[in-house]
Design a protein that fits this description.
Elements: H1 2-8, H2 25-37, H3 39-54, H4 63-72, H5 78-85, H6 88-102, E1 110-113, E2 116-119, H7 124-136
Antiparallel strand pairs: 1-2
Length: 137
């Protein structure tokens, strides 16, 4: 965890023991929706969800929390309600999960480049090595 804090510049990240356990499915579905419907705000929205959970310990499974994050990042607040009421994004997310399983993703994080993958937290150098090795094949 210390490596992640250093690498991502998040000195204030909570430890895994201090982060509340939440069902993040709504956050993931909302992220997918924002990525597809509001792509110019997606990166900022995703970063804000990450900070909400891992820095501030907020419940990212809460509609109110996600609505607040959406509004703070320029995404229309009704987006979260749309995702909650309309199961298409949730279904699409499950399709993404299934595609990941077909590609051999069994854990988070998994980094995939071409036909090679690497599971777990790794240094930037190791990720660069993965890319170099699979690119030379």
């Amino acid at each position: 965890m210390q490596q992640l804090k250093t690498e991502y510049g998040e000195r204030d990240m909570l430890s895994p023991h201090d982060v509340p356990r939440v069902d993040s499915l709504l956050a993931q579905s909302t992220s997918l929706h924002v990525r597809r419907q509001h792509p110019k705000w997606w990166s900022e929205f995703d970063d804000a969800v990450f900070r909400a959970r891992w820095v501030n310990g907020r419940d990212i499974g809460s509609v109110d929390t996600l609505r607040s994050i959406a509004e703070e990042t320029g995404v229309p607040g009704d987006t979260v309600r749309e995702v909650t009421l309309d199961g298409r994004d949730r279904s699409a997310l499950f399709e993404c999960f299934e595609e990941a399983r077909r590609r051999g993703v069994t854990d988070v994080p998994t980094f995939v480049h071409q036909d090679d993958s690497l599971t777990g937290v790794h240094t930037t150098e190791r990720l660069q090595q993965l890319v170099a090795e699979s690119s030379s094949e």
